[in-house]
Amino acid sequence: MGKVLVLALAGLLAALFGERLMEFRRKMNASRELEPVELPNCQLIKGIERGAEDIDILPDGLALISSGLKYPGLKSFAPDKPGEIFLMDLNDENPRAVELRISRGFDLASFNPHGISTYIDKDDSVYLFVVNHPEFKSTVEVFKFVEDENSLVHLKTIRHQLLSRVNDIVALGPDHFYATNDHYFFNSILTFLELFLGLPWSNVVYYSPTEVKEVASGFYSANGINISPDKKYVYIADLMAHRVHVMEKHANWNLTQLKVLELDTLVDNLFVDPYTGDVWGGCHPNGMKLFFYDPENLPGSEVIWIQNILSAKPTVTQVYAENGSVLQGCSVAAVYSGKLLIGTVFHRALYCEL
């Protein structure tokens, strides 16, 4: 009888493992291969060799770019080098990336930037919020951007127990924001188990100096986050679910789900065109190639353009798709005046004229 029970238990565990493996591969889009979609007027951006994980563009065409992310479970071509913030003026005929100088007193050696967001105050001061992972922990660094000096003045570091595994951020004022926690655990083994078992423990947090709270939950991997031009709606990319959630923002900063867009790709960061309200997504067409890096089977890149996202039938257009020979692991796409920047988690960045 005991042997029968052991065999039954082993069979149950094997069945559960098989079901979880199939579901894990589905969420990773493991079987997807890309049909290329090319853009004619593109060039790699000189000086960006270690990723452009997130990009935000100011209304005057100045693009801020985070580079050099080192993250558990992901490839890094320069694991011992600190991260950087680059500036590109998209009004120039031939824009180039310039590294911004960061003020003294800030720990540059452990700078590990991830998602970024800008906020312009009433006096035209520009604040840059940067998700940082010093020693693989999570903080939010607040800088003031000084354009005349091509520099960032560090103002403060924000830490909180609810900001435990921050991926991306959207600034709501000079001292408050929404942030996504992409996983519950930070340890790479526990994170893998969280993903493999399909635990929806990822969330969105609202932070202000007087209140910090969870405002949305139940995501498999809340990743990119951004806000509509009228500030009424918040868009959240759930990487592992292949979804973009449209949330309504309330006066108390809570979020309620309005609708969900189902997609066939792993959506990373989201950029909102301030003039049209269109949403641009940098995407990973096949997550297995991203998380299990193989130089013989490179992770591809994909850019999607979502028009009329609040309507009953939004239009989703695949703008760019490439198998990794040019760009590996696309994480963001941002537009300004007919120009497109495409960034990656750990590889290069592309400048295109549409």
TrEMBL record:
Which Cys residues form disulphide pairs? Answer: 42-352
Q: SUPFAM superfamilies recorded for this chain?
A: Calcium-dependent phosphotriesterase (SSF63829)
* Record's function text: The absence of paraoxonase activity in turkey and chicken blood and in turkey liver indicates that PON2, if expressed, does not hydrolyze paraoxon.
Q: How is it modified after translation?
A: Glycosylated.
EC code(s) of this entry: 3.1.1.2
Q: Which residues bind Ca(2+) 1?
A: 53, 116, 167-168, 223, 268-269
**Membrane topology field:** Peripheral membrane protein
Names of required cofactors: Ca(2+)
Tell me the GO molecular function terms.
aryldialkylphosphatase activity; arylesterase activity; metal ion binding
Q: Where does Ca(2+) 2 bind?
A: 54
Q: Which residues does the record list as glycosylated?
A: 323
Annotated catalytic residues:
114 (proton acceptor)
Q: How many cofactors are bound and how? A: Binds 2 calcium ions per subunit.
Q: Which reaction does it catalyse?
A: a phenyl acetate + H2O = a phenol + acetate + H(+); An aryl dialkyl phosphate + H2O = dialkyl phosphate + an aryl alcohol
What's the protein called, per UniProt?
Paraoxonase
InterPro entries noted in UniProt: 6-blade_b-propeller_TolB-like (IPR011042), Arylesterase (IPR002640), Paraoxonase2 (IPR008364), Serum_paraoxonase/arylesterase (IPR051288)
GO terms in the biological process aspect are: response to toxic substance
Annotated signal peptide: 1-18
Main localization (coarse): membrane
Subcellular location, in the record's words? Membrane
State whether keyword Protein biosynthesis applies. Answer: no
- GO CC annotations on file: extracellular region; membrane
A Pfam cross-reference name: Arylesterase
